[in-house]
Amino acid sequence: MRLSTPTGDEAVDLDAVDLFDAATYSDGDPHVVWHAMRERAPVHRQVLPDGRGFVSVTRHADVSAVLRDHTRFTSKRGTLLSILGGVDPAANKMMAASDPPVHTDMREPMAKALSFAALRSRHPSVLGVVRRMIAPLAGDEPWDVAQAGAGFPMEFTGALMGLPEEDWPELARLTTMAVAPEDPSFGAEAGHGSLSAAHHELFEYFGEQVQGRGERDDLIGFLKAMDLGGRGMRADELVYNCYSLLLGANVTTPHAVAATVLAFTEHPDEYARLTGDRDRTNLAVEEGLRWSSPANHFMRHAVGDTELSGQPIRAGEAVVAWLGSANRDERVFADPYRFDVARTPNRHVAFGFGPHYCIGAPLARIALRLLFGELVRLVERFELAGPVAHLRSNFVAGIRSMPVRAVLRPGAAAELEGGSDVVPAPSR
Ligand code: HEM
What we know:
This protein has 428 residues and is an alpha+beta fold. The chain has 18 helices and twelve strands. The radius of gyration is 21 Å and the shape is globular.
């Protein structure tokens, strides 16, 4: 998705905008549309040719209000536009598609297993993944950061969940296909068929993974042993939650990586500011998350008649919260179209807001901090080395391909090739 800077003078016909169409994000300019919506129609209705409709909210305050309050806006009827008008079979079985108290019963123990403290022992293995991933920067060929990033979360989440390593490449492909079924990279399969094929294969796969495992010290083992108010998780609940965890990790994290590196190529002065003060790396990671907003939207349904920004919302209406727009809201962010590696405060909603706030945020932050800690330490500057191709999806603000070249610091090539024992500063 293009991360453009609207001038406010663009002619945007709000009756004609199509936020459902995946091509809006691969070939269009959604930031111009969202800017106009925040100004002129903060509560906007779109009806599709088949009669299905949805309300869009684009301001930070409305997005937060929708995500925060499950008593007004339920997650049980699906949380992605791809399910608009349908029935979510995962309702009350998968944490992401349930409301409290069912949601809380699943979330509380899972959140402990995925907390910063519980993941501390994983730092060395994630750093190992980071170093393998960036090693090609030492070579002469351009490095496709989007393609390298595509396998990045799979490696640390696959290990955490205890999934066999030989399955990781196919799992990474299937999870992307499940959120970007219309992307041409899925060739002849592209479209609704690829969405069902991806779901079918992933559910079958996790069905096999959760069956017949003895006690194991990994995340799937933990889910199997969890106590849900006096009972264990049923097989279908296990499958849905494994699916959700892997999808949550795989389809978002790569785009935070690629879009942040893209921002470094476009704002070399900001990158230089960062390399001049590496203590800012964690702030830069947060700005990269705000800037990229890898998850474009999340959906809810109004439980009863209500209102947002003074506009009535009818019971049962689908309400889509556009996170990418909220993260550029000039009501909350000073100079929102400026990429500022030291932005503080930075109240971005890239990980959502309220009870469903991303449970994988600690893991994602650990991985991104370790990755950018290494890049900022070793790379003097990045340069684009080819065209940037954007993913065709209304859910993931993704980059499919982005070749870059890195100008390395003295000694970095040897280190990347494994010729140095320099130990990097630990991430905080
Ligand atoms: C940069 C990386 C990531 C981004 C931008 C991101 C974004 C989000 C957002 C916006 C939500 C809120 C959904 C809602 O309100 O309905 C969410 C929830 C979730 N995420 Fe992430 N995520 C990331 C990484 C991860 C990782 C690494 C995992 C797995 C370990 C993960 C698993 C989940 C799950 C299971 C939920 C549902 C939580 C609940 O319903 O309580 N995510 N994520």
